[in-house]
Amino acid sequence: MNPAKHDLERLVDISYRAGLDILQWYDGDMGITHKADDSPLTNADLASHELISEELEKHWPEIPVLSEESADISWQTRRMWNQYWLVDPLDGTKEFINRNGEFTVNIALIRDHQAVLGIVHVPVTGTSYFGARGLGAWRQHEGSNAERIKARQPAAEPLVIVGSRSHANPELASQLEKLGQHELTSMGSSLKFCRVAEGLADFYPRMGPTCEWDTAAAQAVVEAAGGQVVKIDGTPLAYNTKEPYLNPNFFVFGDPTREWLWPFRAAN
Fold first, then answer.
1. How far is CA 96 from the centre of its chain?
2. Which residue from 17, 78, 172, 212 lies 20 to 30 Å from 141 (Cα-Cα)?
């Protein structure tokens, strides 16, 4: 599959409909259970998963689907894939349970270990962020036309840094101080990536556990908007290169001319 604008538009529609399914559970009984790793699972996760999986398999039957809620595909099988859909049907389940609105629907296309297309939909606001390699990135509010977005270059002064609401790390403070004056804002899910992609934030460091479905769609949007998502060695965050789904620490930034990583390398 070579992504085209009409593919993005169809995927935005799928993510929007998944968001509507999620919102049906937002104000009532969420049916909360827990997975083996003690992470929460709700009826909304499952409803979104079912809709997205069915739609992807219907429109692109030749491309396999890996979702957080169907992640028991063996390494022997998926290591042979050169492209596949990587889906987080509800990124930010804790934020969903807390009813703070900071959760998203994430759909990514992975090709040769890279996220080449991504959709991040925010159900509560009806906003979608989407982009693909070679095409660019857009933000679309419900009922409005899509508008192009670009990562901010050069970075603002003071810097605007975003961090995780549910996984705050106090050790970050001294490292961030070395980058200079900055404003730090906490929020949940893939919204942090989106702030960088739309030029409203400059840097998002993640020093803690994430899974590949948490990051792929948003990484594709950031990169399509001119930003970067890299590991501590400066190479891009990659996918389907190992059996576990866990990501290493990573860093998201808009201005590639600035040296963002040295405080974190010095700490290692």
1. 16
2. 212
